[in-house]
Design brief:
mainly alpha, 50 residues, 88% helix, 2 helices
Length: 50
Amino acid sequence: MCPACFAAAAWIAAGASSAGGLTAFVITRRRSRKNAKAEQRPSTAEKKAD
């Protein structure tokens, strides 16, 4: 494999892994926000107790 081809393959691999890491980070952040909002809402059992 020529040096230019190897460099291009390295750039592609780095870009794919970075995009995958960024996607995982965004999904994790959205899930944590969604769970935090769900915990703040009173459940139906708590509403019935009042």
